[in-house]
Amino acid sequence: MFCKNISVIIVNYNGRHLLKECLESILNQSYPSIEIILIDNASQDGSVELVAALFPDVKVVKLQTNTGFSGGNFEGLKYATGDYIMLINNDVIVDKDCISNLTASMEKHQDVGIGAAKILVYGKDCIDSAGDGFSTLLKGFKRGEGFQSNNYDKEEFVFGACAGAAMYKREMIEQIGFFDDDFFLIYEDVDLSFRAQLFGWKALYIPSAIAYHKVRSTIGNLSDTAIFCSLRNCELVRIKNLPFGIFAKHLPSFILGTVADFLYFCLRHGKIKLYFKAKIEVIKLIPKMLQKRRQIMSKKKVTNSYLTSLTTPLLDRRFLLMKAKKFLFR
Question: Which of 135, 186, 185 is nearest to 159 (CA)?
Fold first, then answer.
């Protein structure tokens, strides 16, 4: 069980107030062979100094600019030596057996390249993510978000993992690549999960691997940066990865989802300028994304019917309930 080395990468931006609990939880893991790499995105709050003083065994790489979550993890990969790459947000605390349980379950499946932890909302009895799903709205989502913590207790194959607490097999990363640094933050994990599925790798949700997320402690609640990246990057995921046949099949649901997004961000939250700024940026990036798409599709190994089997129907009861709660109360 303990034969594999694990590299833990944490990306930090002005998260000094979060780092102590996060790092202590990693250092207290039951899994013995762990290296910790902290990538600091040009913080100005003394984060680097805190880690150097309290956690001398943590490798700290201080960047001169903020490269976002995607760029930070990509930089961290350069220093990682492990057989598995574990990503943990700086606002996440992991249960002592989280890494052990992820590794043990992933080792049982040669074709599993992604391990998804069960991420609970810190201080509340509810789920933040039980792995990632991909709906017939043609958009990624966090499975189980908002449901009580005693739900989603079955280990099962899923579409992907929320990168706030996720494990990736190095062999898979070497084959398919890592995060796309054009994303900066948000949906970079959905993009990677989609690419993994296209290339024939699987994602496994492992509910015995528990993590606690201090939700929105880093990027804030509906901040302009988060909204812009969300609105832009969901489109980039589709342009890069979505087979045309699946797009055509679910076009009515996609249109409905697009209208819902417009109503939510533009009318409910008054982010009209930001909405169109994000969509204009998508148009600018289309040539670049199409070039990446050609490379991805040339290596596609699975059928559209297999990918469709991983999608969550719009009328799925739990999915509808989750979306309704978010639309009405957030």
Answer: 135
Q: With the C-alpha atoms ordered 268, 272, 278, 284, is the resulting torsion angle positive or negative?
A: positive
CB 74 within 8 A of CB 178: yes
Q: How far apart are CA 308 and CA 320, in angstroms?
A: 18
Distances (CA, A) of 87 to 38, 56, 69, 163, 170: 10, 20, 10, 6, 12
Three-state secondary structure string covering 156-178: EEECECCCCEEEEEHHHHHHHCC
Question: Torsion over CA of 164, 313, 135 and 126, rounded to 10 degrees?
Answer: -20
Q: Residues in the chain, how many?
A: 330
Query: What is the per-residue pLDDT across 262-309, written as a single tens digit (0 to 9) for each?
Result: 999 999 899 999 999 999 999 999 999 999 999 999 999 999 999 999
Distance, in Å, from the CA atom of 125 to the CA atom of 117, rounded to the nearest integer, reads 16
62 and 40 Cβ atoms separated by less than 8 Å: yes
Q: Is the whole model's pTM more than 0.90, yes or no?
A: yes
Q: CA 26, CA 94: separation in Å to the nearest integer?
A: 7
What tokens appear for 36 in the block?
Answer: 């910790």
The pair of structure tokens assigned to 217 is: 């402690």
Distance, in Å, from the CA atom of 69 to the CA atom of 290, rounded to the nearest integer, reads 23
CA 173 from chain centre, in angstroms, equals 15
CA distance 159 to 72: 24
